Amino acid sequence: MKHRGFFRAGLLSLITMAIASGEARANDYLIWKSVYQFPSIRMGAGAALMDGKIYFAGGYGMAGASQDANVYTPGSDDILNLNNIPQKREGPTVVSWNHTLLVIGGMDAGGVGQTNTANLNLPDTVWHNYYPNLMNAGRGYMGAAMIGSTVYVFGGFTSLPVTVVDTMESFDYAVGGAGTWNPHNTKHFIEAPKAGMLTVELNGLIYIIGGFLNGPPGASNKMEIYTPPPVGDGFAYGPDLPVAIAFPYGGVIDGKIFVMPSSNPIGGSNPIYVFDPAANKWSTVNYTYDSSFISTTKRASVVVGRKIYLVGGTAPISTIDELSDIDFSVNAPKDGKIQVRNNIINTAKGMTAFIVVRGTAGKSFSLAVYSRAGLHLGDIITDGLIGSDGNTLVVFDGSLKDKKLNSGAYWIVGGGGVKDRQPIMVINEK
């Protein structure tokens, strides 16, 4: 413990500790990193999860509205090209049903909202136009959610740049070619016509969050909740989003809605907002951004397990990003020590290590990190309290001053109130 005084005197600027009033949860700290960089701009694509893969189509690039269709397998280093969709579409909605991919609406090359659906039958990879099943209004950048075999679409642009609608309609794909779109003509947003909302389904309800408004203030902070038939057929307000966001993105993890900002996340200046329906309130969550690239607005978002993937986005570069929480399951020690190799995040600010300490709630602990093999980090010792849930997250930010963590070997030594004197090193590999 010879460096305890050094820590108290000067190491606070070197180490960021996620310990607030002795209570911090590991899953309140998220890792946001880019996993793929597009060769050129690709914004406004629609995306959906099907059979564990992320399919996305359409969008807007250097040549205007796009017919491109692609698939990305989480964990891979590249995307695969599919056959082009039948029409150029910017801001379509993409959903999957019964192993079929459906591309709904979008803006055509002239900026006018499409009304038809294109569907991709797998595994033959052939696209078909879903005529005569036309939406009642042309829509691009609409909100959409799938419940069972029925897709619900909300608002959107009918033409660019500013013609926005407030109506909704639905289509039951189980009916197939004999079906028609139900216009729900008497159902309108409470707030105003809008487009570019985050729309998610949770527990049979559809949450419509934020969006672009046709007029001041230009962005919405409202959350409207739609109750679909047979329970209801109308909108109600939920608690306001803490800030107004046009074109937010996000998804549902563990029964909570995560909403990401539609602007540069580096440095944490734009927090991630989390809505808990059980508590009926919003909170924020910390994150670190592991990329030097920045995609911003007009992105698609898809949830895969406990991760949210963001597809495309505006300049300066389009990427696929992965947002994940701290994984409790890895690196459980058996001998009171943990050797760390290649388990340190290379963030935009430098190398960062995340340690989850598990133990008895409310007990104090000491955590020591020291380098070996000539890495010259210097011994670091920190004290803290185990959180009320039995977990505490400690974040070692080695990018500051003249001391940097790197991918060499470190030992983590537990003490104090930690169970069996064994903390758990929890890290996401790049």
CATH superfamily of the largest domain: Kelch-type beta propeller
What sort of overall outline do the alpha carbons produce when their principal axes are compared? globular
Q: Tell me the total number of β-strands.
A: 36
CATH T-level topology of the largest domain: Neuraminidase
Q: Tally the structural domains.
A: 2
The proportion of residues forming helix, as a percent range, comes to under 10%
* Distance between the first and last residues' Cα: 32 Å
Walk me through this protein's architecture.
- The protein is mostly beta strands and 430 residues long.
- The chain folds into 2 domains: 4-25 and 328-425, no CATH class; 29-325, Kelch-type beta propeller (Neuraminidase), CATH 2.120.10.
- The protein has one helix spanning 4-10, and strands spanning 16-18, 29-37, 46-50, 53-57, 60-61, 64-65, 69-72, 79-81, 93-97, 100-104, 117-121, 126-129, 143-147, 150-159, 163-172, 194-195, 198-202, 205-209, 212-213, 223-227, 234-237, 249-253, 256-260, 272-276, 281-290, 300-304, 307-312, 319-325, 337-340, 345-347, 350-358, 364-371, 380-385, 391-397, 410-416, 424-425.
- An 8-stranded mixed β-sheet has the order 22-23-24-25-2-28-27-26, with no helix packed on it.
- The model is unreliable at 1-26, 330-349, 370-379 and 399-430 (pLDDT under 50).
